[in-house]
Write a structure and sequence with these properties.
Pantoate--beta-alanine Ligase, Chain: A,domain 2, three-stranded antiparallel sheet, Rossmann fold
Length: 288
C-alpha cells in the first residue's frame, strides 16, 4: 500500500492508473476507521475487482465543522487506520495536510466552494448551515485529486450521500456514486467514530435512535392507507425524551429522492433523526 500526502503526488498516481485502464474506487473518510468504514472498503474492492485500485482518503475536513463543533477533538488514529487499510488490501491511502487541500500562502488563498442548493436544506442543513458546503467542496477536491471511476459512501449519512450524488449529476462528473448499507452494533446503534465520545451510561441508552426507526417501521409496515406523520413524530419524541440523557434535535420523515418532508407516510419513505447525549450528537436514518 502506498501512503501519499500531497495532492499532486496522489493525482499523478491516479492518472497513471487511468492510463492503464484500471478501475479506481475512492472511499472518502475522516479517519478513525471502524467496521463501517471496513464495509465500505470491502464494497469498493468488490466493485473494482482484484485488478482494480482502491484509494482511502483520511482527512478531517475543517470546512464541514461549525465554530462550536468538534473539529479539534474529532478522533484521529492514523497509525491504526493505515494498519486496517493494509489488512483490507487498500492500494493507496491519501493523508493530506490541511494546508495542501486549502492553501493559504500569499497568492494562493483558497476561495472556491461548492454549494448544493436543494437537498442540503433541512435536517442536517438546518442544524449545521455550512456543513454540506464543506462536504461538497472537499469531496470535489478529492474527486479531482484521486480521479476515481466510482466512490463509496455510507447510508448512515443519507443526506450527505444524496448531496454528493446530486453534485455528481449536476456537474457531469464521470463518477459512479454508491451508497453502502449502515453497519450496526448488536443493539442497533449505527457504528460511528463519534460513538467513542459516549460514556458508558450514554452508550447504554444510545440505541434509542434505532428503536425509534424500528418503531416507525412497525407503524407503517403492512398498511394500505398512508400513516399520518404528526402523531408518530409526537410518539417518538416522547420516547426519546424518556430516555435518560437524550436530547432530541430533530425527527424528519422524507422522500428518499427529493428529501422533502412528508406528512403522510408510505413504506418507500424514510425517517431521519438526530439525538444528543451530553456533548455527543448522533444521527441515523432508515427506510420505512
Amino acid at each position: 500500500m502506498k501512503k501519499l500526502t500531497h495532492p499532486r503526488t496522489m493525482q499523478r498516481l491516479a492518472r497513471s492508473w487511468q492510463r492503464e485502464g484500471l478501475p479506481v474506487a475512492l472511499v472518502p473518510t475522516m479517519g478513525a476507521l471502524h467496521a463501517g468504514h471496513a464495509s465500505l472498503i470491502k464494497h469498493a474492492r468488490r466493485r473494482v475487482g482484484e485488478a482494480g485500485r482502491v484509494i482511502v482518503s483520511l482527512f478531517v475536513n475543517p470546512t464541514q465543522f461549525g465554530p462550536q463543533e468538534d473539529f479539534q477533538r474529532y478522533p484521529r488514529s492514523e497509525a491504526a487506520d493505515l494498519k486496517l487499510c493494509r489488512s483490507l488490501g487498500v492500494d493507496a491511502a491519501f493523508t493530506p495536510k490541511i494546508e495542501s487541500i486549502y492553501p493559504s500562502e500569499a497568492g494562493r488563498a483558497f476561495s472556491t466552494f461548492v454549494k448544493e442548493a436543494s437537498l442540503s436544506q433541512g435536517m442536517e442543513g438546518d442544524t449545521r448551515p455550512l456543513h454540506f458546503q464543506g462536504v461538497a467542496t472537499v469531496v470535489m477536491i478529492l474527486f479531482q485529486v484521486t480521479q476515481p471511476s466510482l466512490a463509496v459512501f455510507g447510508e448512515k449519512d443519507f443526506q450527505q450521500a444524496a448531496v454528493i450524488k446530486r453534485m455528481v449529476r449536476d456537474l457531469w462528473l464521470p463518477i459512479e456514486t454508491i451508497v453502502s448499507p449502515t453497519v450496526r452494533e448488536p443493539d442497533g446503534l449505527a457504528i460511528s467514530s463519534r460513538n467513542a465520545y459516549l460514556v458508558p451510561e450514554e452508550r447504554r441508552h444510545a440505541s434509542i435512535l434505532w428503536q425509534c426507526i424500528e418503531r416507525a417501521r412497525a407503524r407503517v409496515r403492512g398498511r394500505i392507507d398512508p400513516t399520518p406523520a404528526a402523531p408518530l413524530r409526537q410518539s417518538l419524541t416522547r420516547q426519546i425524551r424518556n430516555a435518560p440523557g437524550a436530547e432530541l434535535d430533530y425527527i424528519q420523515f422524507f422522500d428518499p429522492d427529493t428529501l422533502r418532508p412528508q406528512t403522510q407516510l408510505r413504506k418507500n419513505h424514510r425517517i431521519a433523526l438526530a439525538v444528543r447525549f451530553g456533548h455527543t450528537r448522533l444521527i441515523d436514518n432508515g427506510a420505512l
